[in-house]
Write a structure and sequence with these properties.
The chain has one domain (4-181): Hexapeptide repeat proteins (UDP N-Acetylglucosamine Acyltransferase, domain 1). It is of the alpha/beta class and 189 residues long. The longest helix has 18 residues, at 19-36. It starts with a helix and ends in a 6-residue tail after the last strand. It contains four helices and 19 strands. The protein has helices at residues 4-9, 19-36, 43-53, 118-122; strands at 14-15, 62-63, 68-69, 75-77, 82-83, 88-90, 95-97, 102-103, 108-110, 112-113, 125-128, 131-133, 138-139, 144-145, 150-151, 155-157, 162-163, 171-174, 179-183. α2 (19-36) runs antiparallel to α3. The strands form four sheets. It has a seven-stranded mixed beta sheet. A five-stranded parallel beta sheet has the order 3-6-9-14-17.
Amino acid sequence: MMSELEKLKAGLDYCYDDEEVIAVKNNAICQCENYNGIDPLDRNKRVSQLKLMLGKADDTTVIEKYFNCDNGKNIFVGTNFFANYHVTILDVNEVHIGDNVMIGPNTLISTVGHPISPRGRRDHIAVTEPVTIGDDVWIGGNVTILPGVTIGSNVVIGAGAVVTGDIPDNSLAVGVPAKVIKEIENDLE
């Protein structure tokens, strides 16, 4: 029989108040607290902490205060990644973010949700799906990206959007739920 943590790692429904699952989240809370406590002008120390806590980060990774996550090790960011103030990434499942991505303040990226069934919620069940974001993406402020979403490359997500489904390459998407309203020229090709 699988443990709840093994179920979580396998992408299966799991109980979110299991001791091992809580330990992973508590570690992330402590790592975020450490990161958010670093002098914002101490770039080297901030980058070192991000490299320690994330699955992939490099010397070009910038995340402003206050950053929160559920695991950290499930976040993989490309080069020239910038996240503005108060970004939360609920990385119970993997979040892959490409190169040259900017995320506006107060944005939420979530890989976790809960059942529609009241029994499932009473049993503290959580369900997860990964999130993927391509290269050269700008996500405006106050955006919410839900589990299972793939955002293509050369995409702009307008401020306040709720992204509930995939967004194709070379698109401007806005609204609740986010809908593509315009094709964007890729002037890099």
